[in-house]
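Page 47, continued from p. 46.
Same chain as before, 755 aa.
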Amino acid sequence: MKRYTVAILYIFCLIAAQAAIRHPSLLFTPDRVKNAKEALKTDTAMQNAWRVIQAEADRQAEGNGDVRKLEYPALAYIMTGDRKYADKIKDVLLATAKTKSWGDREMLARTPAWRSELQMAHRSFQVAVAYDVIYDLLTPAERMEIAKGMYDLAVEPLLGDWILEPTRIHSLNSMGHNWWTSCAGMGGLLALAISNEIPEAKKGAETLIEVLPEWFDFNGDVIQHKPRSFDRDGGMYESINYASFGTTEALLFRLAWLNSHPGAKLEDIPQTAKLASFFCHVAYPRKGELYSINFGDSHKNVTGESSMLLAYAMGDKSPETLWYVNQVKEGQHREGFPRIFPMGFLYTPDLSKAPATPALPTSHLWKDFGWATLRDSWEKDATMLAVKSGMTWNHSHADANSFIIFHKGVDIIKDAGNCSYGRPEYRNYFFQSDAHNVVKFNGEGQPSFQQYHGTMLPGSVSSLTDGGNIKYVLADGTGPMSKHFNRNFRHFLWIDNVIFIIDDIGSHEPGHFEWLWHPGGEATKRGFDLEVKNGQSAVAVRPLYPRQLAYSNFVHDYPEDLYWEVKEGPTESLQGTEEYYSFHLPETTDRVKGVTAVILKDSPDDKNLPVIERREGKNWIGMRMRHNGKVTDIYINQLADGRLMHMNSWIDADGWTTDAYMFAVSYPEGGDAANPYETFIGHGSSLRRGDDVRYSSLSKLNLIAGGSGRSLDLNVTGQPRVNLRYKASPTSLNVNGKTAKIERDGNMIKVKYRE
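Result:
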């Protein structure tokens, strides 16, 4: 009697499960197919994409059929109704269901054995969409045969290894990056597909949809030196490549759940609403294919449109998504969703309303994982500076305080990139500090063990202040280089067409400092400069402090100046080598202020370059820059670098009195320096001219002041509570891009706010 009761209960469960999902409904849904068919009537881009997709579907239908490409005949069948595609899918699925294992030999050899991995996840996606599409053509027996075989082959290992007890072996702490969402997400997708037939699969999918938000909210692991997955301002530290891949795999399952459960209400995942902003801010629009910053294990041509399109389909209708997708060249990223791939074909929205440029600020800071981007505009082939100084671990390289400069269409100062992880070039070069634009000490960069064990003391990026013509950001790479350095700050001050890179470094003991530069083009040492050009893009790299580059090859005539060394590293393609440069300080020291000007040229033949003069005074060093009738004086306070305890760092420089770490004033050639029309204050509480107070705050802030006519623009960062005074008489005031009420205190205006 008990046996019959169990059988009856199983039948009821099976009936309930069968009622839960109507096929097809996961990703290749009837409404998406209907819209695609309608678009094919008039849209030439869709017509061209369909020809590519159908050609691949025909190859699959006429050949043996590849389980890794079932999405093509699946889409072709649901678009055309031609049974040849469905028959091939059925043959492949029935044969695949008899497969004993998709396990990987290397993974199975681990302790405990990893029964699932990425290739299993990729195949599960293909099987899920194909099974969903031909479901109604299968007999109940065929459905059960395929479902039972696929549950044993893929669903149980994937969900069993990654989320379900008592077999789970992974945690978010150990593998909470792209592997978790790929394996769990694609296991869940296939579980959804077969949940009518297999109650255990239905339960597994329900468990995954419940726990999936935990991946987005994972806050890191102090004990294992692992960072939180997502920055509070959006974005994922693992690199553009893995941010896109990991998020896409999660959203594929979430979208399939929503499609197959009409009216379902799921827990909100706020990170998805920030995907468009993140991928736009790390993108570099060009007249050619879109580039992205390639910190870590990524490439310049990697894009994030796949996860953005999925978020868009689920309701995050950001116009920035339309702009971004409009910049992506068809098929430039092999794991993206271009229109020539089935998912892109169905999910690319109408791009006719894409804005010409995104309605986003020209700079962005991700404090949690230590990235920043700054650009002079959103136009194609503009100039963009990307800075990184956060965690080193896994896909995040040993590149604290590194940077990339994009200018006129190319990464003219570049990151060396990466290669296949199994290659010695990856672990010995691309991952290590030598492949990045950093400062080394006694020939050493970050310790190599950080690749596996993580950065015990992460770096950071902060103080981003964007005043339009003047931009500033601070990177702190002390932690990752703490084996050698007790201080490792890198300031980026971008004024007009010059990016000043100011290194403030202290070492535990005297030694040799070395600056690495990776040119993104043909590099030539000429006089005091390293000139780099690539097409119409060109820059001059000019060290100013602690010394200039030795003027010629007769370095023995310049014994105190920087000398250079041309080094070689492998190319990303591993097809030969490429050169990069090392600038050495001959003397040994335990404290250095390194200042390098990167001059952005309008063309390789541009001769109208700013004249930059080195200047020094008591307790300060600086530069005077003249260009096109404008003079900018820059001062760096030598007392403000942490050497004073409990004593404020006051200096007098050319009539200015300040405690700022650095400041700059701009005025017309022949004009009065005491009346600048642009002012930058970096980490300062006061700026005076004799007894005339120009700026005052009890806490040290970063401030950029500019504007035109009687309009004053102030950009302020540095503290959550701001209460400052600034000498000016404007009729209109903007503070951090927002219109502010003018409050006066004598000849000063008051700015007071709390974040």
